[in-house]
Amino acid sequence: MELKRAKQIVSTPSTDIEVQFNGVSVWIDEIDEKENTATVHLRGPGEERTKVGIEDLKEVTH
After folding, report:
1. Mind listing the pLDDT tens digit for each residue in 16-40?
2. pLDDT at 13 (0 to 100)
3. 24, 56, 28, 37 alpha-carbon torsion, rounded to 10°
């Protein structure tokens, strides 16, 4: 995923946009432009947050 698109998804209040990391659906919590990383957590139960490379995120279109 590109940085610009990740920022658009974070700023969109819609929950209709699915993003995956390693094939697992995640929420993007915040973007770190300087490091080109995103803090994400799994959709559903659990609030564990992980910092991942934005290029490792994939938008899923239905």
Report:
1. 899 999 999 999 999 999 999 999 9
2. 75
3. 150
Q: Are 38 and 27 in contact (CB under 8 A)?
A: no
Kindly report the three-state secondary structure assignment for every residue of 1-62: CCHHHHHHHHHCCCCCCEEEECCEEEEEEEEECCCCEEEEEECCCCCCEEEEEHHHEEEECC
* Alpha carbon separation from 36 to 26, 33, 44, 51, 53 (Å, rounded): 17, 5, 25, 10, 6
CATH 2.30.30 for the 3-60 domain, yes or no: yes
- Whole-prediction pTM: 0.85
Question: In the chain, where are the structural domains located?
Answer: 3-60
